[in-house]
Amino acid sequence: MQTARFLESHVLSVVMNKETEWTIEPWHIRVSFRKAGIHVPDHCISLPVKPIYGPDANLEGKEFCVTITINNKEKVNVRCRIHHWSTNPADRLPHIDYHWLLESEPIFPE
Question: What is this structure's pTM?
């Protein structure tokens, strides 16, 4: 229960390449959790039914939810927010401090 509350209260930053085509996959979410200091195996991650493709500037800062299964028993929704990243410093978007405090639009309005 404590793990579920912890995960529900956070917004996970999902950093994606600004130049190379991608589709969000469980391993992207796993890596984002790892960067946040949380270990989540791929088989515990359920993505939205509709795929998310990029790079797409219209997705920048928008949210989607993934479902995490904890100990094969409990399911919790975690908010994820897309951030585009470039290896070229001149092409990087400005850093936004405390992005999780800002309001955001969902990628899939429901």
Answer: 0.83
